[in-house]
Each structure stands twice: as C-alpha cells, then as structure tokens.
Amino acid sequence: MIPIVDRASAESIAPIWRMPFRPFFWGGALWSMIALLVWQLQLSGWQLPALRLGVIWHSHEMLFGFAAAVVVGFLGTAMQTWTGIPSPKGPQLISLVGLWLLARLGYLFAVVPLWMPVCAEVAFFLLAAFLLGARVLRTRQWRNLFVLPAMLAFAGLSASHWLLPGAQSRVAMVALLLVTAIIVVIGGRVIPFFTARRFQLSQRDKLPVVEWGTHIAAISLLLCVAIDLPQVIWAVFALTLGVLQLIRVLRWHPTKIWGEPMVWSLHLSYWLVVLGCFLAALAWSGVAPGWQSPALHAFAVGGIGGLILAMASRVSLGHTGRLLKAPRLMPLAFAALILSALARIFWAPAPSGFLAAVIAWIVGYSLFLIYYTPVLFQPRTDGHSG
Questions:
Q1: pTM higher than the cut 0.85
Q2: Which end of the chain is more exposed for a tag (fewer CB within 10 A), N or C?
C-alpha cells in the first residue's frame, strides 16, 4: 500500500502537480515536438535570428529538455514504489518544472544571457538529485542509488555542453549514452515483467553474467567516451553491449508480443537500442565510419524516443487507475516512432529523410497528447490520490 500522509492535503493539489510523471510526460512530449518543428524550419532555410538555434541547441533540447526531463518524471514517480516515500508533489514539483521551463525558454531566445538558462538547468538537476537521492538514502535502497550520480552527471553535462566549445560533440554523446544506459537498466527490469504479466508467461530467471555484463559494458562505454580513449575501445564495449542486449531480448518471449501494442512497442524500441550498439561498433572500429550518426540516432530516436512514448503511455494509465489498454490510435503512434527512427537511420541525411523522421515523430507524440492530456490533467479514476 502506497502511504499517503494526509489525503485531504494531497487532494487539494491540482492533479497535474500530484505526481512527477504528469507534468514531465506532458511537457516533455510537447517540447519535443516544438523543438523538432523549430529545428526543421531552420534546416529548411528559415531565418529566425531571435532564436538561439544550431546543432548544439537541437541536440541539447532533445537530450536535456526532452529525454532527461522525462527520466526525472519517471524516476520521481517510481521512487514512491521503490522506497515507500511519497513522490515529490505540489510546491516541490512546481519548483522542478519551473526550473526546467526557465531553461527551455532561456536557451531558445537569443536575447537571454546564456548563463541564466545554464544556471536554471543545473539547479533543476541538482534539485532532482536532492529530492530523489534523499529518498534512496533514507530507505537504504542501494539498488536504486544510481539515480543520484545520474542526476549529478546530467547537471555537469548540461552545463559543459554549452560552456566547453571544443568538447560539445563528445559531451552530447556522453549524455546520449547516459540516457541510453538508464533505459537499458530500467528496460531490463520492466520489459520482461510487463511481457510475462500481460501474456501469463513464466518470467525467465535473469542470467547474472548478462545483467552484470550489461551494466559494466554500458558504464565502461560511457566512461571511455567521456575520457576520450581510442575509438576502437569504444567499439569493443559497444559490440559487447550489443551482444548482451541481443541475448536479453531473445529471452523476453519476442514471438509472443504481437497481440498487445503496449508490449510490442517496448520490444521494438529496445531492438533499436541493440541495432544502435552494432552500428556504433561498426563505426568506431573503422569498418564503416559513416554509420556513427545513424547509430547515435538509433539510440536517440528509436531507443529513447520510442521507449519513452511506450513507457509514458503505460505509466500514465497505470498510475491514474485506468485500464492498461492502448487507446484506439496509439498503435499508430508507436509505429510512427519506429518509422521515425528508421527514416533517421537509413534515409537521412537526405533532406526528405530528415523531414520524414520529424513528421513521424510529431504524429506519434501528437497522438499521445490528444489521448493523454485528459489523463494527465484529471484525477485518478479509482479515487486514490496521485
């Protein structure tokens, strides 16, 4: 039973501010579409001098403005289940969202001095580190202690991305690998569980060598990129991670998933993480150096974008007391994110490939907002608070 200290007090809070997933899933989805639309206008030749646009802005907003913010919303929500301590809500949650929004607007408009959004975003991640880390430490949930270094790393990387001009590409890559590592950890926990539960299958025992190897390979790859070791070493860890993830997904009953969109969407997105690992290994080993950008976008669009959409759809229903059944057109949304990833991997850098990827992403997340805005802004259907 989830503890509620004061139910009357909790229910006095507007529903959107009762759990972290509510504002961050909604805001992250909306912001991802805005950022991609603005970026597509820039690529199409529109002159927007009032805006601080460029490759750095694009990668920053998709990594920190979208992905990392949704991670904060997910982990902040999961923390209540993991620790038994209520998640941040009310003024704490409003403060988090306010800092996140200040950073987004500050980075977008060129008239705002750069130090202002940098400070707001660092404060956002430090506050998240404090709110989430304190709950883990208080309950000695050492298995979930990764949230503390992850939030601190996001804080450092977000500032470095703007303030270290000579290392911006590598900082962005480290941030991408950090988000990927988090979804590999979380995906390894929830995807086999959701699959087995939905189809009443036996959940296979995890192989310790695969699970520990996954964590070691993911962290090693991240650190190798961060300290700029030779790329052939990156390739070794990317290949190792890919093989381990392939073993993982083949043990998650992949032939049983096609009758449930809430499940196959998770699996297909995770398969794109596996693809990204193998493409990255080819690129960094020197066998196919031109595949680095497709590999990174397999992680970013397919793995992160697809898994966020699939997880946000499921979490939003489950944590608001609703039936875990995909709304009518959500299978189209899930398919659109897979197509967006495939277009960005195999069709870009042709302009039509970029455009197709952006359109497919916007279709997917627009459908999410159409169906889930009422879910996120309204109270739970079962009468509980949260």
A1: yes
A2: N
8 Å CB contact between 225 and 289:
no
What CA–CA distance (Å, rounded) separates 272 from 341? 8
When computed from its CA atoms, the radius of gyration of the chain, rounded to whole angstroms, is 20
Q: How far apart are CA 50 and CA 34, in angstroms?
A: 16
C-alpha torsion sign, points 317, 319, 193, 366: positive
Alpha-carbon distance of 312 to 280, in angstroms, equals 27
Looking at the DSSP bridge assignments, the partners of residue 51 are: 109
| 241 neighbors 218 (Cβ within 8 angstroms) | yes
Cβ 135 vs Cβ 83: under 8 Å:
yes
- H/E run at residue 285: none
378: three-class secondary structure by DSSP: coil
CA nearest 321: which of 19, 33, 74, 111?
19
pLDDT digits (tens, 9 = 90+) for 254-272: 999 999 999 999 999 999 9
Residue 96 · residue 128 · CB < 8 Å: yes
Q: How far apart are CA 206 and CA 184, in angstroms?
A: 14
